[in-house]
Amino acid sequence: MNAVIQTNNLNLSLGGKQILRDISMTVQSGEYVSIIGPNGAGKSTFMRCLLGMYAYKGSIEIAGQECSQADSKQLAKTISYVPQTHDMEFPLPVYDFVMMGRYPYLSPLVPVQKKDIEAVERAMDVTDTWPFRGRLMRTLSGGERQKVYIAAALAQETPIMLLDEPATFLDWKHQSEVMQLLKKINTDCGATVVAVNHDLNSAAHWSDRIVAIKDGQLLLDGLPTDLIQPEPLRQLFETTFIRTETLAPATES
Ligand SMILES: Nc1ncnc2c1ncn2[C@@H]1O[C@H](COP(=O)(O)OP(=O)(O)OP(=O)(O)O)[C@@H](O)[C@H]1O
Prior knowledge:
6-stranded mixed β-sheet; ABC_transporter-like_ATP-bd; P-loop_NTPase; AAA+_ATPase
């Protein structure tokens, strides 16, 4: 196994408040890791830290390189990000939005090339977003827009993908499609996937490992079968959990 994300004693303060405290964790190449935890625990901030968006204390190594010292375009060739909310009104056609995923490879001196067009077409094909290519982003439904954001991240062709609540607000069919798509990208393309997920059943079903953050600290880190249990979840969310028989959408083979 080879570690592609490694944080050591990661600390971060924002607006005079300590948000992340001494987080040390490792993600191995090819893993699918879900991050769970209460609202305001620091999950999104942790993800944004991994993208080099904040001046942190401690260490974050992405593919062996310290994040704060990495060239931003090089980092963008290694790690892509699908943010939590998509309420920005991009006045752009879907195709052009997905092409923005190629920004680490483009520059004023290097215009769009065949390999960029092919990467965009592949990403739109696998996410089933090609039929929307001429539509404006703001005309898409929430679920359609979510898949377009994932297509843009895929077009970036990075070995690591971070996603912040990729299936929240989607109906069951679209949740299922997005989660299956991520698993396919993980297993078929070998991408390392790290996703924040508030749906504990979904996190248990799709991930290899679960990391729980509470009050800015890493509280739990382990197998879904060990962590998605009443006692660890009570400790994490400070409420009682009982096991019930649940219904979930079937996984297509
Ligand atoms: N720029 C900032 N300045 C000050 N405080 C911030 C800033 N960004 C985030 N925070 C605070 O950091 C804490 C963690 O926020 P974060 O968005 O990471 O939580 P989260 O675990 O992702 O929550 P949720 O599940 O509700 O999305 C919150 O208390 C938030 O208000």
